[in-house]
Here is the input.
Amino acid sequence: MKKFKMCIIFICICAMIFGLAGCVQRPDDDSEIPERTVLGFSQLGYESEWRTALSNDIRRAAARAGVQLMFDNARQQQFNQLRAIRSFILKGADVIAFTPIVEDGWDNILEEARMAGIPVIIVDRKIETENEELFTAFIGSDFHSQGVKAGEFMVERFAYVEGPIRVAEISGMPNSSPAIGRAAGLREALAEHPNFDIVISVSGDFMRSKGREVMETILREMPDIDILFAHNDDMALGAIEALEEHGIIPGEDIIIVSVDAQRSGLEALQQGKINCLIECSPHIGDKLMTLVFNIVNGEPFDRYTYTETRVFIHMDNEQDDET
Ligand code: AHR
Here is the structure.
């Protein structure tokens, strides 16, 4: 009988231990809550309206999904991102996600995450790596196709113009995948149209203040341009400020094409100051959380997830609203 009692006690203890696996005790009461998935997320900075929208979207989605988010903002420095990712590894995050500020220089930290058995999701921007297996999944948009769509709009808009059609480009941060992809896409779309000439290309680091500064430089060095292609809305809006100060009418004297289609970009499109906006959606938080759960639970998932890229054109430019 004594043996039987001991056996029952042993079974109860086992049931408690195994029953509690995956649960934690609230510090202030007796009830149990399920252990939450921990996601370490390194955001590259806060250079643009788009970036803020992405951060907010991820915070909201994590809260909705019950994911415990460790959020770090790297303030535009790659070494801050590396430090944040290392700290997520040390804290034992279930999954790490980050928006790589530039394409290169990630292999060592990804190897560290791999050794620790932590899956890594690349968000928004792409990386250059010797070994594609070092990351688990990518979610973001197709920057190259955004550049192509910008070029296609220019070709249609100037269909009956002999040229030369002079294009100025305010590009994003050097060595970042959106700057590389959008520049390459634009050149690909214009390659068969020798009447287009990209006469100047200067980086504005995706920032409104720099867009304005760079536009001043362009007006000094190449005053006679027909089209401005800005790699994001913030830089386009900064450039518009500079143009207006010089008495140049944006959207009329100079055709303006930009990427993102965030609220202030769409307002400028409505006012006719921007002629064409190529969408780059920052609303990827929910998809990211689904990816996190699928990875953690060993469910199937797509290794590459791309967001939709729509094209918004101001009505005076004689095309459909969306393609
Ligand atoms: O990586 C996406 C780009 O980065 C967005 O187009 C831009 O606004 C942001 O800063």
Summary: Confidence is low (pLDDT under 50) at residues 1-31, 319-323. The pocket of alpha-L-arabinofuranose is lined by residues 47-48, 50-51, 124-125, 178, 206, 232, 259-260, 280 (CB under 6 Å). The longest helix spans residues 2-20.
